[in-house]
Amino acid sequence: MGRLDGKVALISGGSKGQGAAEAKLFAQEGAKVVLADILDDEGKKIEAEINETGGEAMYLHLDVTSEADWAAAVRAAVDSYGKLDILVNNAGILLRKGVEETSAEEWDRVQDVNSKGVFLGVKAAIPAMREAGGGSIVNISSIAGLRGSTSTAYGASKGLVRLLTKSTAVQYGPEGIRCNSVHPGIIETDMTEEMLDSVGREQWLARTPLRIIANAHDVALGVLYLASDESRYVTGSELVIDGGITA
Ligand SMILES: NC(=O)c1ccc[n+]([C@@H]2O[C@H](COP(=O)([O-])OP(=O)(O)OC[C@H]3O[C@@H](n4cnc5c(N)ncnc54)[C@H](O)[C@@H]3O)[C@@H](O)[C@H]2O)c1
Question: How many helices (H) and strands (E) does the chain have?
Answer without folding.
Answer: 9, 7
